[in-house]
Amino acid sequence: MDFSEEQIRRYARHIILPEVGGVGQARLLSSKVLVIGAGGLGSPAILYLAAAGVGTIGVVDDDEVDLSNLQRQVLHTTSRIGTPKVESAAQAVADINPDVRLVAHHTRLEPGNALDIIGGYDIVADGSDNFATRFLVNDACFFAGKPLVSAAILRFDGQLATYKPRQGGPCYRCLFREPPPPGQIPTCSEAGVLGAIAGTMGALQATEVLKELLGVGESMAGWLLIYDALSTAFRKVRVKPDPACPLCGAEPTITDLSAHGSTADVCG
Would you say the pTM of this structure is higher than 0.70? Predict the structure, then answer.
């Protein structure tokens, strides 16, 4: 790929990295990443992926910008309250990098559209804030054969993992077999979340997506990263594939997305 003078200047700090170089930057520009949720996690992830020059970023979100979002969802602004989040995301990305095309999926991810949407991308970053969506995204990525980088936040804590069960790693269901009963685990709107935690985990999520696209470093597949902001502690826990997993195990009982019901908002 021949870079313009402007692109050479824009991506100079990438290009001088031996692990990236011109070849790696060209790979990013031709890559397609799907982000589930333009909320707390999706905001920093989208911003950093756009700044990095990921050529196509798809964003799935059916919500509108609300005043209560702005404490952590740095993609949006006060002037865009009431605007669909995918439109707000498109404006932010256009301001950051004209090389990047944002594809707005102003819809809720459902069993009927998940495979069609996910199938058009190289990798998925899940920033949803509810278990119904997380399980749906995990299952759809498995069936579509797409790597998944998943993050979650609550109060002062964060988690991050990469799932590549088609390459021998575990899937989300290897850790959590089924969604917890409704009401057992509070949402961010019920329990609260420190806004900056979203930035920490969303930036880490973007980093792992870029590593997967570039094929550099050690993949987070097979690991769960746990962050405790109050003690400023990170902990990595080894996670192995579960042979009895109902999705990716030896005798799967989940063979399509028909068991999934409706999902909730994915704003984070």
Answer: yes
